[in-house]
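Tokens as discussed.
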């Protein structure tokens, strides 16, 4: 009897391990586009930090605590110029306020993830948001895939940042144009969502509003007003639909 119970326990553990392994494999496949962009872009960040006089461990520390690519590049300049903590904090808030809109999409999902919720909030980026939007609604499996996508993406960024900091001391790299990987990722995801969507009104509204805001306020400040106006328009549109 005791031996039988042990065998059942082993079988159960193996079955759970198989399920976890299958979920991890799916998450890794979903994260490959992020890996292709994060590794090279974060290497460019690590090289910039090295050129500014900050060793690789500073790049790792910043990536562990800040983890927002666009702001990390700006932070290199802020740190080099001796900017105040208040300036850094306000810049970070303004640059990353768009994440508030992303989070609204996954409020229910994050609430059901228990202790992992805070980690998911901290690791929400443009790329993980875009990939998570393509996941099928499969309950707990979807939540696990979201977690592993976020975890793997963060690992990609930190590995690239450290590698860039180390290699920047040895070999000079020309990373011009490599950030286009992120643009390409979003274009592909947009096409995928366009093909799957029943209505193209949200996509068309987003394009038109972004184009108008770009012309009115310029490329440096158009993102936040575009998100606010597009969100308001889509809320009204969905309300009238219902």
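Sequence:
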């Amino acid at each position: 009897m005791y031996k039988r119970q042990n065998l059942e326990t082993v079988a159960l553990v193996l079955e759970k391990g198989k399920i976890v392994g299958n979920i991890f494999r799916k998450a890794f496949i979903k994260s490959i586009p992020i890996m292709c962009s994060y590794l090279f872009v974060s290497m460019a960040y690590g090289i910039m930090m090295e050129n500014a006089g900050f060793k690789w461990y500073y790049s790792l520390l910043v990536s562990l605590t800040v983890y927002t690519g666009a702001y990390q590049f700006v932070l290199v300049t802020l740190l080099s110029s001796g900017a105040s903590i208040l300036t850094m904090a306000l810049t970070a808030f303004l640059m990353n306020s768009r994440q508030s809109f992303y989070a609204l999409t996954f409020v229910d999902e994050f609430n059901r993830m228990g202790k992992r919720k805070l980690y998911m909030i901290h690791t929400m980026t443009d790329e993980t948001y875009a990939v998570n939007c393509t996941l099928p609604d499969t309950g707990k499996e979807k939540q696990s895939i979201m977690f592993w996508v976020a975890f793997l993406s963060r690992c990609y960024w930190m590995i690239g940042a450290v590698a860039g900091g180390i290699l920047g001391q040895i070999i000079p790299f020309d990373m011009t144009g490599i950030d286009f990987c992120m643009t390409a990722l979003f274009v592909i995801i947009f096409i995928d969502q366009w093909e799957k969507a029943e209505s193209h009104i949200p996509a068309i509204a987003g394009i038109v509003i972004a184009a108008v805001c770009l012309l009115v306020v310029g490329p440096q400040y158009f993102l936040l007003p575009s998100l606010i106006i597009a969100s308001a328009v889509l809320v009204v549109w969905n309300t009238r639909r219902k």
